[in-house]
């Protein structure tokens, strides 16, 4: 059969090719299968041609760990595609930049800034709790209404990452926030989803609706970033580094004054803007998506919600708010978060990796320049590793006493692993825990009466999106009585 790749569909599915051969095979046709059947049907590894690109798909955790951990450096490259080049100004960010000294420096700077302002600091916990309180306030005012919680969850998460990146936050209805919501959705819908134009770049010379939308959205994003940049430059003071943008600006300015971060390395304005754009974009879209999946699963599994609430009532009660230090006290909530990350991985194909030299996976040779897609969906739904993988069962992450969380299988990589591992794992886990704990301490989330349970099927994009749904947040009797 001839390959037939309607835009947007390809990445949500898996395509069949021959098992990875010692030499790239001749151009083969691509079939499609829902990616849940990939591992069972095609085994741990297979390859296919997408346009002129040789693509290797990895379906099992053993091969995934070989790529990400054991041979992490050999597979640390990223493909250049039309859409990610537009998003990142030709790979000047972190996520879509190829391996090299500048990428290393950008990662190091962000890591240092996140540690300084965020992870492990009480200041960040305070910021998250402030946003959690505001989220609960909104849910209270909309009580018993069928509410689309997505914008509220997004605002809460955005304000945390906005504080980290720009030392600012948004109020409800802020037009800049509304614009951000719109452009970011446009980007998620159009970037890095194995669309035709990313497979056959020459197609960009023809009119293309998705590409036009992406360019429009990037224009709005760029204006926002540029404005923040200008404000930060104006207010910059070397002695008080307030946020990530200041931290990057400091490195940039000291390079201008003759002290580059490393000999021969120059961090341009584009690198600085794209780095902040990445952290802001990743910070918003990933964590919000996981929160939406969590709420959706709690609607489907009210008994899980009840168990979380019972655990909270017993361990922390209703007289005080949850703190980060309560994490060891609430293993069932932690297990629920782990299960959500397993059953609906935010990034079900990670970001494609590229081999930087001739290398191998298992017994197969992989040529330099091959694109390697880690099928995290298969890894997280592998029947040999997970008992009834389609079932939502937080208990699988608990030990026999139900007191500690652990992964029952090594086939679990929600944040990737190795040299390209997610930079925001610690931050994301802090937010997921606190937002869910605050909301569930006060409210029971229900599906509005006379509405069917919303679909658990994801919508593929650069993140696995949740379809729109409405929720009724009912104030818990116990909370009402206690307050
Ligand atoms: C990369 C997952 C939140 C920043 C990744 C990757 C995954 C991932 C799977 C790709 C790893 C690879 O390609 O091998 C998640 C999940 C999150 C989350 C599940 C939320 C629950 C965040 C947050 C930030 C962030 C909050 C920012 C503060 C990044 C960056 C990369 C990345 C910059 C690119 C790393 C690189 O290419 O070197 N993330 N992420 N992520 N993530 Fe996250
Ligand atoms: C999300 C939309 C934003 O407007 C721009 C953006 C920047 C970084 C991307 C993020 C988007 C999607 C999720 C990504 C993140 C970098 C790492 C993260 C791809 C496109 C993941 C999950 O890998």
Account of the protein in words:
The radius of gyration is 23 Å and the shape is globular. The N and C termini lie far apart (66 Å). Strand 6 and strand 7 form a beta hairpin. Helix 5 runs parallel beside helix 15, helix 10 packs antiparallel against helix 11 and helix 11 crosses helix 13. 46% of the residues lie in helices and 8% in strands. The longest helix has 32 residues. The chain is of the alpha+beta class and 483 residues long.
Strand content: 5-15%
Q: Which strands sit side by side, in order, in the main sheet? A: 3-4-8-5
The number of helical elements comes to 16
- In round numbers, the mean pLDDT is 88
Report the helical percentage.
40-55%
What is the global morphology?
A: globular
Compounds present?
protoporphyrin IX containing FE, (3beta)-3-hydroxypregn-5-EN-20-one
Strands, total number = 10
Kindly name the structural category.
alpha+beta
What's the Cα radius of gyration? 23 Å
Major pleated sheet: 4 strands, mixed
Measured distance between first and last alpha carbons = 66 Å
SSE topology string: EEHEEHHHHHHHHHHHHEEEEHHEEH
Which residues sit in consecutive blocks of at least 5 with pLDDT less than 50? 1-35
């Amino acid at each position: 059969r001839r390959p037939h790749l309607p835009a947007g569909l390809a990445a949500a599915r898996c395509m069949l090719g021959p098992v990875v051969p010692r030499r790239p095979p001749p151009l083969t046709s691509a079939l499609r299968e829902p990616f849940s059947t990939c591992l069972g049907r095609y085994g741990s590894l297979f390859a296919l041609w997408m346009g002129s690109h040789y693509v290797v798909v990895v379906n099992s955790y053993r091969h995934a760990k070989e790529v990400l951990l054991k041979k992490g450096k050999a597979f640390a490259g990223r493909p250049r595609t039309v859409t990610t080049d537009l998003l990142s100004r030709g790979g000047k960010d972190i996520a879509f930049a190829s391996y090299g000294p500048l990428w290393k420096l950008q990662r190091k700077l962000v890591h240092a800034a996140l540690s300084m302002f965020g992870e492990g600091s009480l200041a960040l916990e305070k910021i998250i709790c402030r946003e959690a309180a505001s989220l609960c306030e909104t849910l209270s005012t909309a009580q018993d209404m069928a509410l689309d919680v997505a914008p509220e969850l997004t605002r809460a998460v955005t304000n945390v990452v906005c504080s980290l990146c720009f030392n600012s936050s948004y109020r409800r209805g802020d037009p800049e926030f509304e614009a951000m919501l719109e452009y970011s959705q446009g980007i998620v819908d159009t970037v890095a989803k194995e669309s035709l134009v990313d497979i056959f770049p020459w197609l960009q010379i023809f009119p293309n609706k998705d590409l036009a939308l992406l360019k429009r959205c990037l224009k709005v994003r760029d204006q926002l970033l540029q404005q923040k940049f200008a404000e930060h430059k104006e207010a910059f003071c070397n002695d008080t580094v307030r946020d990530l943008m200041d931290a990057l600006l400091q490195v940039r300015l000291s390079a201008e004054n003759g002290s580059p971060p490393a000999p021969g390395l120059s961090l341009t304005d584009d690198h600085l803007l794209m780095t902040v754009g990445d952290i802001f974009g990743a910070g918003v879209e990933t964590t919000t998506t996981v929160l939406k999946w969590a709420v959706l699963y709690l609607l489907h599994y009210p008994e899980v919600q009840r168990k979380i609430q019972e655990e909270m009532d017993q361990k922390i009660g209703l007289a005080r708010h949850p703190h980060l230090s309560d994490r060891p006290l609430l293993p069932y909530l932690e297990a629920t978060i782990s299960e959500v990350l397993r059953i609906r991985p935010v990034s079900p194909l990670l970001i494609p990796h590229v081999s930087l030299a001739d290398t191998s996976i298992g017994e197969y040779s992989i040529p330099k320049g091959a694109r390697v897609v880690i099928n995290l969906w298969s890894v997280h739904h592998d029947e040999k590793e997970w008992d009834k993988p389609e079932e939502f069962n937080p208990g699988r992450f608990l030990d026999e006493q139900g007191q500690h969380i652990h992964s029952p299988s090594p086939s679990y990589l929600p944040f990737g692993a190795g040299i390209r591992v997610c930079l925001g794992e610690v931050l994301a886990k802090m937010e997921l825990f606190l937002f869910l704990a605050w909301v569930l301490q006060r409210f029971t989330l229900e599906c509005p009466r006379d509405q069917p349970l919303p679909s658990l099927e994801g919508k593929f994009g650069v993140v696995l999106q949740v379809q729109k749904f409405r929720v009724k947040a009912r104030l818990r009797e116990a909370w009402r009585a206690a307050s």
